[in-house]
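Hey, quick one: can you model this chain's 3D structure?
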Amino acid sequence: MEILKKFFISHGLKVLLITIIFVVAYILIRRMIPILIKKGTEKRVKKKSNVEIEKRTKTLIRIAINFLTFVTWTIYLLIILDMFGVNITAALAGFGVAGIAIGLGAQSLIKDWLAGFFIFMENQFNVGDVVKIHISTGSAVSGIVEEINLRKTIIRDLDGARHIISNGIIGMVSNLTQEKSRAHLNISVAYKEDLDRVMEIMKKVWGDMAEESEWKEYILDSKPTILRVDNFGESGIIIKLVGETAPLKQWDIMGEYRRRIKKIFDKEKIEIPFPHVKVYMGDK
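Sure thing. Here's the predicted structure for all 284 residues.
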């Protein structure tokens, strides 16, 4: 107790000053990093969409702040230890030996960090992307990316479950919302319908949506990319429609398109088939 009292009498002002400096540095990191990264990202990825730039920016900001915060407070701790008379060189050497020992038993952690580094550098996915991640255990997880760091990726699925995945076990990644997405629809009509007429109506509904102010920003082409007879189903003929959309907007567009198709098919007396059974009551 007496040692601590003497220390604070002789070094209290220095400790206070150093603490204030590092607190200010921490606050500046939290405030300046987002501004600097936003400017840098906008310059480097001018050809990307605004949504893509925003996702990449969020990811870079989180990783940079976490890393610089760790470095800042580590330096602060080392300075304070030095003021207490702790031999920093010896301590670092001890940490190095301990690190080797720990490293031999923590290969999975190193694997996670390396995998996270390549996910980040190769821009495989960012915060806000909707992905399907295949895990080395054989299972797969789908959802929106909530957080990424060098050790783990956190995904929220449609049921609201939060999946925490170690980067080292991530295998194939399917990114459903990077750069652009696709609205992929299979529309079924009765065998008796005129298919040329049906496909013209489908094209018109898509084109009308693409011209409306509410949707034109998100529909990247006014004509469907693919419009073809895809299959002869049990109850009807299936027509495939595929159109390019802005990331994350394909599900909203598909929902609205289905609503409009149902209304226009009812108006034009075009039958949307459904399974049905004919019942015969005896020989008569």
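One thing worth noting: Helices lie at 2-44, 50-83, 88-104, 107-121, 195-211, 250-267.
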